[in-house]
Amino acid sequence: PATTTHSKLSDAAKAELAIAGGTLRVSVGLEDGQDLLDDFEQALAKLG
Fold first, then answer.
1. How far apart are CA 42 and CA 18, in angstroms?
2. What is the pLDDT of residues 1-48, one digit of tens each?
3. How far apart are CA 34 and CA 39, in angstroms?
4. Which of 17, 24, 26, 41 sits between 20 and 30 A of 7, alpha carbons compared?
């Protein structure tokens, strides 16, 4: 969000909203929650 949807906010406004440079926004639909968690765990494991 810091470099996309909230990029026009000031640094102070981002800090107030707890949006840091490493914040990751995930948008999900109707997927099963456990499937999503499994997918994230698999992806993070590949990152090391």
1. 27
2. 777 778 889 999 999 988 888 888 888 888 898 999 999 999 999 987
3. 9
4. 41
